[in-house]
Amino acid sequence: MPENTCGARKPGRENGRHRIPCIRRTGHQTAHRDGLGQEWPQQEASVDHQNDARAVDPARSAARAQWEAQLAADEAELLRAEEWHAISRRLDRCHAAQRAGDNSTYLRDRVARLEALQACLLGSVESLAA
Length: 130
Prior knowledge:
By secondary structure, the chain is mainly α. It folds into 2 domains: 1-55, no CATH class; 69-122. The chain has 2 helices and 2 strands, in the order E-E-H-H. It has helices at 58-99, 105-121, and strands at 32-33, 39-40.
């Protein structure tokens, strides 16, 4: 785009056909016009058409960051609860097999691994090293 053209973009969605820049000369006083012949009115002088920047409210940004952090924490808690439930079901089946008389080394090792995973979910990461 030549430097002497306005370059303002029609307000609206960020991408799409209606975001074609104005082809009129810089500083024109009439409505903007794109290469397709569509026109739209001049905006107030305070709007930066070149960057199409939108003001960011710091309080709103902080609130959104806090909301996203809470959402991530809630999701992590839900995933921990689901993992706990899955491990508990496996442990229940292993304990039922032990009650039925299966005393194999494989089953004892499996129970020990599952109990270590549960201890890890409770916050004892060292139990996985054993």
